[in-house]
Write a structure and sequence with these properties.
Elements (H helix, E strand, L loop, with lengths): L1 H24 L4 E15 L6 E5 L2 E8 L8 E15 L5 E9 L4 E7 L6 E6 L10 E7 L7 E6 L4 E7 L7 E3 L2 E9 L5 E10 L4 E7 L7 E6 L2
Parallel strand pairs: 1-6, 8-14
Antiparallel strand pairs: 1-4, 2-3, 2-4, 4-5, 6-7, 8-11, 9-10, 9-12, 12-13, 14-15
């Protein structure tokens, strides 16, 4: 009986310790008070009203973030399980929210995408390493619910820039020559374009994110953000 009692105590203690570790590792809004990360906030939700953005319950963007708008980098606390919440401007109503991790000293872009039940928050880490000499550096992100789940992004000439890019995924960064760029978006492996899109001129030494968005066939669009 004594042996059984000791084993029971050991298992009980181990269970309590494991539970404590799990609770600690899943702590909500686990803010690193001594660390910071840089965050660009983007409204890529076609049908949304102007947005505010909150992180761990605190306002980061107080309002006026319309569809297609992107902030410059904003220094925020790093940490784990931070609640990221886009709200309709002037209200407490969340358009979309999610928990994110921000590592001290790193750079990120966070997007609001989608509408209704498809509204979502997506976070991507940015690479601000300088482009190759005389080149621009660009990555592509697929955030459109109207486009097929996998897309090819091609030059107007038909050359693939990115192939088979999944929805909500980002490509690797690629080097592009400076200048204007005309794009077409296709369902992966398809031959019928979803649209022709002209982007502003890329500059040598600059880093860009180009994203595809749109909730229906009539509002698919491609937009670009300068990251540096």
């Amino acid at each position: 009986m004594k042996r059984t009692s000791i084993l029971k105590s050991v298992f009980t203690g181990a269970s309590i310790l494991l539970f404590s570790v799990l609770i600690s590792s899943c702590k909500k809004d686990d803010i690193d008070e001594s660390g910071s990360a840089n965050l660009t906030v983007v409204n890529a939700a076609t049908g949304s009203s102007a947005q505010s953005f909150y992180l761990a319950g605190k306002p980061v963007v107080s309002g006026g973030l319309n569809f297609g708008d992107a902030t410059s980098y904003i220094a925020t606390n790093s940490g784990n399980n931070l609640q990221a919440e886009f709200r309709n401007e002037g209200t407490e109503t969340a358009y979309a929210s999610d928990d994110i991790d921000l590592t001290k000293g790193r750079n990120y872009t966070i997007f609001l995408a989608g509408e209704g039940q498809s509204a979502r928050v997506r976070l991507y880490e940015d690479d601000l390493t300088a482009p190759a000499s005389g080149q621009a550096k660009v990555r592509f992100i697929h955030l459109s619910d109207a486009a097929p789940s996998n897309v090819d992004i091609r030059r107007a000439s038909g050359e693939n820039l990115v192939a088979n890019l999944e929805r909500n995924a980002t490509s690797n960064y690629v080097s592009l020559a400076p200048g204007l760029l005309s794009l077409q978006v296709y369902g992966a492996g398809q031959t019928t374009s979803l649209g022709n899109f002209d982007l502003s001129a890329f500059e040598a030494g600059k880093i860009y994110t180009v994203y595809v968005t749109g909730s229906n066939a009539n509002n698919i669009s491609v937009k670009q953000i300068t990251q540096n």
